[in-house]
């Protein structure tokens, strides 16, 4: 049986990413620069002769747009493709669409105390703070959030494993990927994931292993190919 490997891409840069707004379950399309970045990623993945058994994304428009570009550049538009709402981004509820700075440097510090630096908060604390601050009642408590993310990715891995293993291409969201990494390997330091970065997980005997987080080398390689440098 081949090894089961998930190549998890963060979607391309969107309008909200560009102007620093929290996107969550709201949505904006990729910008021209965002589309170019995902084109680079697809070309880069193809240049390493990577092929994928199946594709998976959240049901958000920005991940669908990203996957369409990737599969086109890979020349693999005919592989099975599943949309799964469990691997959506965190929902910020009434805070969706607000500026990142207000959420992470205003709202959360006010909840936990003015001296609190949001970067020092655990994912559980951040989820609790967002849940408490959300006046619409849409944000998910930590237990619901972590369970939906972990179950979504576990089902993807088990599906590929049941078919004899191989590579799966997954497109989702920055905080979703970071949360998944934390749940698997909490010792790995938190980091901000760039649009079009790749995080690689392997799955064997019911266990995930984090191989690499936020790899930008595929995009860099694709940019060189598109620019005619290699």
Automatic annotation (TrEMBL):
GO terms for cellular component: cytoplasm. GO terms for molecular function: isomerase activity; phosphatase activity. Its EC number is 5.4.2.-. Gene3D superfamilies: Phosphoglycerate mutase-like. It comes from the Bacteria. Transmembrane segments: none annotated. InterPro entries: His_Pase_superF_clade-1 (IPR013078), His_PPase_superfam (IPR029033), PGM_Phosphatase (IPR050275). The active site is at residues 11, 89. The keyword Isomerase applies. Substrate binds at residues 10-17, 62. The keyword Transmembrane helix does not apply. Keywords: Isomerase. Pfam families: His_Phos_1 (PF00300). This is Phosphoglycerate mutase. The gene is gpmA_2.
């Amino acid at each position: 049986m081949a090894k089961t490997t998930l190549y998890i891409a963060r979607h391309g840069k969107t309008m909200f990413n560009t102007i620093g707004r929290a996107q969550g379950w709201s949505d904006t399309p990729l910008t021209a620069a965002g589309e170019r970045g995902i084109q680079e990623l697809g070309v880069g993945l193809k240049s390493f002769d990577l092929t994928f058994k199946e594709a998976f994304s959240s049901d958000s428009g920005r991940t669908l747009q990203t996957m369409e570009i990737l599969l086109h550049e890979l020349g693999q538009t005919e592989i099975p493709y599943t949309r799964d709402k469990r691997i959506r981004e965190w929902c910020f509820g009434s805070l969706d669409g607000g500026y990142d700075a207000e959420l992470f440097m205003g709202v959360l510090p006010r909840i936990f105390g003015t001296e609190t630096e949001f970067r020092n908060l655990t994912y559980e604390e951040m989820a609790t703070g967002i849940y408490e601050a959300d006046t619409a009642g849409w944000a998910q408590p930590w237990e619901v959030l972590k369970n939906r993310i972990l179950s979504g990715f576990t089902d993807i891995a088990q599906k590929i494993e049941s078919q004899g293993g191989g590579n799966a291409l997954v497109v989702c969201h920055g905080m979703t990927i970071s949360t998944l990494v934390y749940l698997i390997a909490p010792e790995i330091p938190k980091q901000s994931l760039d649009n079009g970065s790749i995080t690689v997980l392997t799955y064997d005997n019911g266990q995930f292993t984090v191989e690499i987080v936020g790899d930008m080398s595929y995009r860099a390689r694709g940019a060189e190919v598109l620019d005619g440098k290699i």
